[in-house]
Design brief:
The protein has 181 residues and is mainly beta. It is built from no helices and 16 strands. It has a 5-stranded mixed β-sheet with strand order 1-6-7-8-9, with no helix packed on it.
Length: 181
């Protein structure tokens, strides 16, 4: 359900599985050698799946952001996680500095785009929104309704970094100028 992502230093490939685990593969390792960077996966729980891309903060290397969708949409979250480094043991309960906890709840979170903030598309089965999250402290901004808000949104993308593009299952694509009101 998630796209593989390469770290800014091109040394780590981040992948997730449908069983709620995130793995870090050490790219400089030769094939056949233990290519796992961490002692084990980041275990998010069997009912949780990473959606979209795992983003690394370009201003704080190793600080990772991901949307974790739960089988119950009201329990979907955005997670900030600090890469424990080579041979480190990931801990899903550790919060990033500045965040009050390791996660922020976003009902029906779909996918995220890291720009000046973390922009998350969400669908709570009633309203389609873009939710803004300040990645320095995890605070949630005012939600922005996508169009009439009646169609489930997909992943968020950008072209120039000054707008968001998001399609919906209603057959529409929206261009949303940043900053959001």
């Amino acid at each position: 359900e998630a796209s593989p992502a390469v770290s800014y230093d091109n040394a780590t490939l981040l992948v997730s599985d449908t069983a709620g685990s995130v793995y870090a593969i050490d790219l400089p390792q030769a094939p056949g050698v233990n290519m796992m960077k961490w002692t084990g996966p980041l275990a998010l729980g069997a009912t949780n799946q990473v959606k979209g891309v795992i983003w690394e903060d370009w201003s704080t290397p190793g600080r990772l952001y991901m949307v974790v969708a739960n089988s119950t949409p009201a329990n979907s979250t955005v997670r900030c996680f600090l890469d424990p480094g080579d041979g480190g043991t990931p801990n899903a309960g550790t919060a990033c500095s500045g965040w009050s906890g390791p996660t922020v709840t976003v009902n029906g979170a779909q996918a995220a785009m890291l720009l000046d903030k973390l922009y998350v598309s969400s669908w709570d089965t009633v309203t389609a929104r873009i939710q803004q999250i300040d990645f320095s402290n995890g605070s949630v901004g005012t939600p922005f309704t996508i169009g009439a808000g009646t169609s489930q949104p997909g992943d968020v993308s950008t072209d120039l970094g000054s707008e968001l593009f998001v399609g919906t299952d209603g057959g529409q694509i929206f261009k949303i100028t940043l900053p959001l009101p």
